[in-house]
Design a protein that fits this description.
The chain is built from 13 helices and 12 strands. By secondary structure, it is an alpha/beta fold. The protein has 3 domains: 74 residues, Alpha-Beta Plaits, CATH 3.30.70; 128 residues, no CATH class; 69 residues, Alpha-Beta Plaits (2-Layer Sandwich). The strands form 5 sheets. A 4-stranded parallel β-sheet has the order 6-5-7-8, covered by helices on one side. The termini are far apart.
């Protein structure tokens, strides 16, 4: 038992998490009670007082906090642009973690960053779907991350059974993607494969729609924005918000300052303009508005409210 513990600590990977205090709801609005990252962390490694504190001794790098944070105040620096480039080259991809020896198209410290929005984006952007390598997950301390991802997959499958994504729990089932290689082999294969793919797909790149992510938005919002080409699809409507401004609005524009994603802006005519596709649903604007003039709902919820009237 002690040996296992020491080995785990020796192998523990330092997790590069980026903290952006200015995006945190608690620091933008003193009255905010947001604790999404704290509630998501299975290791009690996060606290918010004068700063967002991540206890490195407790943190296991599950990345669940990055999926929970609406405005990416805590992030693992994952960009949608990476997947936009991959979709030019691949019909199907494999995602994994850095603890695995397998070759992946994309990997981070853990798979806990795979929120419903991101899973949906990936499934819609790779024609033959994508798989998640969970061959090392069963005994991993970060199993809560796997539980989270599998719950999201189950939720999406129940709503959109035609989407093609799945998990792989046995190494022999990875043959369609990769095999187990040494570290040297891994980088050699990536280098050779990248050159080969560049030749094979150079002519097709110009025909592929590519969404370039907005650095002021979270991974989840960028994933939804990348789906905006099909604005009437049920998938898109499930994850986009509607910001309703009622007649109580005095056009004071103070909500534009509190919004972390520029969903509310003052236009050239001095009027309040809504860019709901950027909204993360953090509700800071509605909490901050002294006139109670703002209501934020999921787009589908807003449509159902209108139909019920």
């Amino acid at each position: 038992m002690i040996l296992d513990y020491l080995l785990h600590k020796a192998e523990k990977i330092s997790v590069p998490l980026t903290v952006k205090k200015s995006s945190c709801s608690r620091f933008r609005l003193a009255e905010s009670k947001c604790g999404d990252c704290i509630n998501a962390c299975p290791f009690n490694a996060i606290s918010i007082e004068d700063e967002i504190q991540i206890n490195e001794k407790k943190c296991e790098g599950c990345l669940l906090c990055t999926a929970a944070c609406k405005n990416e105040a805590i992030s693992a620096e994952i960009s949608v642009n990476t997947f936009e480039k991959l979709k030019v080259q691949h019909q199907k991809i494999l995602i994994g973690c850095t603890k695995a020896d397998n070759v992946h198209h994309f990997r981070k410290a853990c798979i806990g960053w795979l929120s419903e929005e991101v899973l949906l984006y990936l499934a819609k952007n790779f024609p033959n779907g994508f798989a998640i390598d969970k061959t090392n997950c069963a005994k991993c301390v970060n199993k809560p991350a796997l539980d989270f991802v599998e719950k999201n997959i189950c939720s999406l499958n129940s709503k959109y059974p035609y989407l093609n994504f799945y998990t792989i729990d046995r190494k022999e089932n990875l043959d369609n993607f990769s095999k187990v290689f040494s570290r040297r082999d891994f980088f050699t294969i990536l280098s050779v494969g990248a050159k080969k793919e560049a030749v094979n797909y150079s002519d097709s790149q110009k025909d592929v729609r590519v969404y370039y992510s907005d650095t002021n938005l979270s991974l989840k919002r960028n994933a939804v924005m990348a789906l905006a080409g099909d604005e009437n699809s049920n998938e898109y409507l499930d994850f986009v918000y509607d910001i309703n401004i009622n007649d109580s609005c005095t056009n004071c524009m103070e909500c534009t300052a509190i919004c972390p994603t520029s969903s509310l802006i003052e236009n050239d005519l001095g009027k309040l303009e809504v860019k709901a596709e950027r909204c993360s649903g953090c509700n800071l604007c509605s909490q901050f508005c002294l006139d109670n003039a703002i209501v934020v709902l999921r787009k589908n919820e807003f449509i159902m409210d209108i139909e019920a009237v």
